[in-house]
Write a structure and sequence with these properties.
heterodimer, A: 417 residues, alpha+beta, 5-stranded mixed sheet, 67% helix, rod-shaped, B: 147 residues, alpha/beta, 5 helices, 5 strands, 14% strand
Chain lengths: 417, 147
């Protein structure tokens, strides 16, 4: 940049001109001095030199101040140039060894000041130009730094992004794995469900068929040849028939229970009053028992009519069965409407059960009484529980050994129509 | 006149015991109409269409009732049902599916194919007897078929 400035031919020629003017003035002064034969004034010279030194110092300071942001080479060159000019001036001044008169000295000083002012101006101009260039360079440098920083930032961002991405991928993989696992589980469940279905189909067809034959042929045997059997023969045949029949009931109940899970629930508004009365009528007719029913008002809910009929059938027949040893069984059916559900209850005054075994009550094939005492397969309450739970409800029991039992089930009443 | 003439009930059943018990149940409730027992679906179709071993059978004689088991080897009950109900000459014959299966898919498919009745064979002998008697009585004596 310095070369650029000097290349314009501004600096040196003008300095030369100034020097020429100075030289001329010096020549004149010398001439004058020579003519005058004066006694020199050391003090004055020293003062002039001190002034020069001060001016130089000022210039240097200003230059230094101005060139703070400039590159070192340019500053050094400028300083060298200034130093050189000053040295020349000093030398020339020193060489003169003259006693000057005040006017000449003043003139010289004025000239020096002017020169200095010019130099300052030039320097200022150059500084401005150089500053521009420097600023551009600085801007360029800044831009470059910026670009570098951006690049680094980008690099770091990429690195960070990569880490984040890897983490995301890991997370995704984890999620994927979880989803995959749940898919696998669902598929396994599907397979299990299919297996269960084909199992229940097999049970339904292949297990019932021979059993039906056993029952049919023992019946045929009894019908056709019963007369030829003595009492013990008839008793043995009767046991075979009864046990095969019990097995048939077990199979039918198990099938009904297993099919419950797959049965589609047809939800309709159910008139529970009439449904329960139908069930009670059918059960008392079948059992021909002289039970007394006290049936309260039963609010309607939505649900599957045939499934809930099954629940009531099982609970009513249960109540009748376990109170059948009473002379005159009493059964009470009532409902309690709660905030979001209706609780239906059926209470009997039968043999009850020990609450210690209450958790076994709703299990498949779980019985709290010996079959010699009360018949049954132990599936009825399991079916009732499954139906109630499929309706989003709960079922429970409360009883005391020898003091009757109360079975209750709650159905959601939220969407009662 | 062959043993295949005047058949009013066609029983299609691969299980010998079930067939025997069905025949016994029908006799017990005095349904003495002539019955032919086809051991599987192929035999049933040949009988109805007067083909194969039944080529000499009088085609004008159509059974009044077909009792059809569903699960059979070779051609199963649903295939027989499909064949008979899609044929103009046999579609009017009442067909009652009598099966051990109470699977919903079998019930649904049977009705889709045009079965006239669907009965799950009860395991208990008394119930079985009653079911067979009811079917026989209804379709042979109560129900009015197109002639």
């Amino acid at each position: 940049m310095w070369r650029d400035v000097t290349g314009r031919g501004k600096g040196v020629p003008e300095l030369s001109r100034a020097n020429i003017a100075l030289l001329r003035k010096n020549a004149e002064l010398e001439q004058l001095l020579a003519e005058r034969t004066t006694e020199r004034d050391d003090v004055a010279r020293e003062e002039a030199l001190a002034e020069l030194a001060r001016t130089n110092a000022e210039l240097k300071q200003r230059l230094a101040e101005r060139t703070i942001e400039r590159d070192d080479v340019a500053r050094e060159e400028a300083l060298t140039e200034l130093a050189r000019t000053n040295a020349e001036l000093k030398q020339r001044l020193a060489e003169r060894t003259i006693e000057r008169d005040d006017a000449a000295r003043e003139e010289a000083l004025t000239q020096l000041s002017r020169t200095n002012a010019e130099l300052k101006q030039r320097l200022a101009e150059r500084t401005i130009e150089r500053d521009d260039v420097a600023r551009e360079e600085a801007v360029t440098e800044l831009s470059r730094s910026n670009a570098e920083l951006k690049e680094r930032l980008a690099q770091r961002t990429i690195e960070r992004d990569e880490v984040a991405r890897k983490e995301a991928v890991t997370e995704l993989l984890r999620t994927d794995t979880a989803e995959e696992q749940s898919r696998v589980h669902a598929a396994e469940l599907e397979v299990l469900n299919d297996e269960l279905e084909s199992f229940s189909y097999t049970v339904s067809h292949d297990l019932r068929s021979p059993l039906r034959a056993v029952l049919a042929y023992t019946s045929a045997l009894e019908e056709d040849y019963g007369a030829q059997l003595d009492d013990e023969g008839k008793r043995l045949l009767g046991v075979v028939h009864a046990e095969a029949g019990r097995m048939g009931d077990l199979i039918d109940d198990l099938l009904a229970f297993s099919q419950l899970g797959r049965k589609h629930i047809v939800s309709v508004a159910i008139d529970m009053d009439s449904l329960v009365r139908e069930v009670v009528a059918a059960q008392t007719q079948v059992s021909a028992r002289t039970a007394v029913f006290d049936i309260g008002t039963l609010p309607s809910v939505r649900g599957d009519r045939s499934l809930l009929r099954q629940v009531w059938t099982n609970l009513v027949s249960n109540g009748l069965k376990y109170s059948s040893k009473n002379d005159r069984p009493n059964l009470r059916i009532w409902a309690v409407t709660e905030e979001s559900r209706v609780v239906y209850n059926i209470q009997d005054d039968g043999v009850g059960f020990d609450m210690a075994y209450a958790d076994k009550l709703f299990g498949v094939f779980q019985r709290l009484h010996r079959s010699e005492e009360f018949t049954g397969t132990g599936v009825g309450l399991a079916i009732a529980q499954r139906v109630v739970e499929r309706h989003g409800g709960t079922i429970w029991a409360d009883a005391k050994l020898g003091a009757g039992a109360t079975f209750s089930f709650a159905l959601p009443s939220g969407d009662t129509a | 006149m062959t043993e295949f003439d005047d058949v009013e009930i066609l029983l299609v059943e691969d299980n010998r015991q079930d067939a025997e018990m069905t025949i016994r149940a029908l006799k017990k409730c005095s349904i003495l109409n002539k019955l032919f027992w086809a051991k599987d679906g192929v035999e049933a179709l040949e009988f109805v269409r007067c083909q194969g071993a039944y080529a000499d059978r009088d085609p004008s004689q159509v059974p009044k009732l077909i009792l059809l088991d569903l699960k059979m080897p070779r051609l199963d009950g649903l295939d027989v049902l499909r064949a008979l109900k899609s044929d103009q000459t046999t579609r009017q014959i009442p067909i009652v599916a009598m099966t051990s299966s109470n699977q919903e898919r079998d019930v649904t498919e049977s009705y889709r194919l045009g079965v006239n009745g669907y009965v799950t064979k009860p395991v208990q002998f008394a119930a079985f007897m009653e079911a067979v008697a009811n079917i026989g009585m209804y379709w042979l004596f109560v129900n009015q078929t197109r002639t």
